[in-house]
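Consider the tokenized backbone below.
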């Protein structure tokens, strides 16, 4: 059974940084591409980034490119999202997901880590 647990969120001032982690279990982590998605209050899920299974190829949404960096440690089964230069519009619940497709929101209920960017 796929089990993903996000952590590392919090309250940060504009321009600040956070590093999110996603602990994975229940599947062969190193065999799968992984994504980060987010959901701001009152909005739908938004894709943030993708990393391939080997960790040597990443893509980012235009709104975070140059500020966010995704990486992974396949030995530890952990996915990371380093977020620098945070903006108030980055405020959202952040989720990791297995594969490249954005999962249905109902599958993310009870999960995620909250990032709030505010002065």
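A designed sequence for it:
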């Amino acid at each position: 059974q796929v089990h993903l647990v996000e952590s590392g969120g919090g309250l940060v001032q504009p321009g600040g940084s956070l590093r999110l982690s996603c602990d994975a279990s229940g599947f062969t982590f190193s065999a799968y591409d992984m994504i980060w998605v987010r959901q701001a209050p009152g909005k739908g899920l938004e894709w943030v980034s993708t990393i391939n299974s080997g960790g040597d190829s990443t893509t980012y949404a235009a709104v975070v490119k140059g500020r966010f960096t995704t990486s992974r440690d396949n030995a530890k089964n952990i996915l990371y999202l380093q977020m620098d230069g945070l903006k108030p519009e980055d405020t959202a619940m952040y989720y990791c997901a297995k594969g490249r497709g954005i999962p249905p929101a109902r599958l993310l209920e009870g999960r995620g880590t909250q990032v709030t960017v505010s002065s």
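The mean pLDDT is 96.
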